[in-house]
Inverse folding.
């Protein structure tokens, strides 16, 4: 499937579909840029100012793409059509040797990746909670420090698996950025996490992506969220 990237360049057969936010897709976009994989970044718009929103940009296409389990994000690579963000990440990572070199290393990377997914859910669960204001303080003072300290204790080398970058690093970087929407002071006590983010951002293809028109600083969540959304 051919298309245009956000910068206007003709892209290859791969299409990544997601809302026009960072959300679940930003680690996927970043790993595609890291691997220099051309792709069409199909960003769906959530329209309206609430309380009712128009999702038709996505729902009008949802059943027409040949997806077995129609959902966002999705990735289409010729005859390969995948939904579920972790499945997409691993598909790309497997093609570029970013899943680990041994069974033990792959298991550790997967363990960390799924732990990150759980911790990310704590963030999104709060941001989309109608009672966001009731639980914000507990997240900032208790949940976030506990999560960040746990990862700070774990990260002892340059990246999750040691000296070599893996797909879990893309997930960890994004989770840290999500938590920092509550203030960078949350991560500042953990110097190794600060340095991890700097190393990640300094990887040449990632740095180039982050300086390009394709990179989206925010929002992290969709309009329906109570925090870090289009209206924040």
């Amino acid at each position: 499937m051919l298309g245009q990237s956000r910068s206007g360049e003709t892209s290859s057969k791969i299409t990544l579909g997601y809302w026009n936010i960072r959300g679940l897709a930003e680690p996927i976009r970043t790993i595609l840029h890291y691997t220099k994989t051309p792709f069409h970044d199909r960003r769906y718009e959530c329209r309206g100012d609430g309380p009712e929103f128009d999702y038709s940009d996505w729902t009008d296409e949802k059943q027409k793409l040949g997806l077995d389990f129609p959902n966002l994000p999705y990735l289409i690579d010729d005859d390969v059509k995948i939904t579920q963000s972790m499945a997409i990440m691993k598909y790309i990572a497997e093609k570029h040797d970013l899943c680990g070199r041994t069974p033990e290393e792959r298991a550790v990377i997967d363990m960390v990746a799924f732990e990150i997914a759980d911790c990310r859910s704590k963030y999104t669960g709060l941001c989309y909670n109608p009672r966001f204001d009731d639980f914000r303080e507990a997240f900032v003072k208790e949940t976030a420090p506990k999560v960040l300290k746990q990862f700070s204790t774990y990260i002892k080398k340059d990246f999750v698996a040691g000296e070599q970058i893996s797909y879990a690093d893309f997930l960890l970087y994004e989770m840290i950025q999500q938590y920092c929407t509550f203030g960078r002071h949350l991560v500042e006590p953990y110097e190794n996490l600060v340095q991890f983010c700097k190393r990640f951002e300094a990887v040449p293809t990632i740095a180039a992506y982050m300086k390009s028109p394709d990179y989206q600083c925010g929002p992290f969540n969709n309009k329906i969220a109570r925090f870090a959304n289009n209206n924040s």
Q: What stands out?
A: The CA atoms of residues 70 and 158 lie 37 Å apart. The beta strands are 15-19, 40-44, 74-77, 80-83.
